[in-house]
Design goal:
Layout lengths: L55 H6 L4 E2 L5 E4 L4 H8 L6 E5 L5 E5 L3 E2 L6 E7 L3 H8 L2 E8 L2 E12 L2 H14 L12 E14 L1
Antiparallel strand pairs: 1-2, 2-9, 3-4, 3-7, 5-6, 6-9, 7-8, 8-9
């Protein structure tokens, strides 16, 4: 097995799990140690002075992400405070990508919020008669993209489906209020709540 060198860091093991820090120089060759340092350093809690998330270089220096071959791109596995602030600084409509019955990707624009009880989880909702619901039951791996022109964040992870009708209806009504829509228009609908646990974060500045 060839040692990891140069830009091959993109093919390192998943960033999920205990080795969520950045890739160190010593670990780019053969080593008996895990390829990632145990845990990220403390990270900034606010946007920078320009009102944007810190640059890829700044996040790498803080130990938040792994450097890859593109200097404007970095990879992590944590919804940091500054990222959560960027995601909620204004109403955003992320694009959810799921795998359909044929194995092809398909996309939907979604309402979202953070799960109040699980800091690594994104909450969404859909109708039970939508094809997306059937596809997610079969294949829970998804991607969720947030963009602001050429600044974007792609989240990867797996979903859990909460099929309790009362909770799902309450969740879609809460999302409607967040997005300035009439929550009562969802009365009588059969809904399901989608909880996406974030396992990977890809950011481009």
């Amino acid at each position: 097995m060839q040692p990891l060198t140069g830009t091959a860091t993109l093919r390192a093991p998943s960033l999920a799990g205990p080795y969520a820090g950045r890739l160190s120089g010593a670990h780019r060759g053969r080593s008996s140690h895990p390829p990632y340092a145990a845990g990220p350093k403390a990270v900034p809690n606010a946007l920078n002075s320009a009102g944007r998330v810190p640059t890829a270089a700044a996040r790498y220096d803080a130990g938040m992400t792994t450097k890859v071959h593109d200097p404007e791109l970095d990879v992590g596995n944590v919804l940091t405070d500054d990222l959560r602030q960027w995601m909620t600084a204004r109403l955003r409509y992320p694009v959810l990508a799921v795998v359909d019955a044929s194995g092809a990707p398909t996309q939907s624009v979604m309402w979202f919020d953070f799960d109040p009880d699980r800091p690594d989880t994104i909450l969404m909702n859909t109708k039970t008669d939508r094809a997306k619901y059937r596809w997610l039951k079969r294949e829970p791996r998804v991607s969720l993209l947030f963009e602001d022109e050429l600044e974007w964040v792609a989240l990867q992870g797996r979903v859990e489906l909460d099929e309790d009708p009362e909770r799902a209806l309450a969740d879609i009504k809460a999302l409607a209020r967040r997005y300035g829509s009439d929550p009562e228009r969802f009365n009588g609908q059969s809904r399901v709540t989608i909880r996406m646990r974030v396992e990977r974060v890809i950011r481009h500045d």
